[in-house]
Amino acid sequence: MSSQPAHPTLLIPGPIEFDDAVLQSMSHYSESHVGPAFVATFGETLTQLRQLFQSTDASAQPYIISGSGTLGWDLVAANLVEAGESALVLSTGYFGDAFADCLTTYGADVTKLDGPVGGRPQLPEIEKALSQKKYKILTVTHVDTSTGVLSELKDLTATVKRVSPETLVIVDGVCSVACEEIAFDEWGLDGVVTASQKAIGCPAGLSISFFSGRAMQAFEKRKTPPASYFASMKNWTPIMKNYEAKKPSYFATPSPQLVHALNTALKQILAKPLSERFARHAEVSDKVKKAVQDLGLEVVATKPEDQAHAMTAIYLPENVKIPDILPKLAGKGVVFAGGIHKAIATKYIRFGHMGVSVTDPKRKDIDHALEALKSGLSECGYQKA
Question: Where, per the database record, does this protein carry N6-(pyridoxal phosphate)lysine (predicted)?
Answer without folding.
Answer: 198
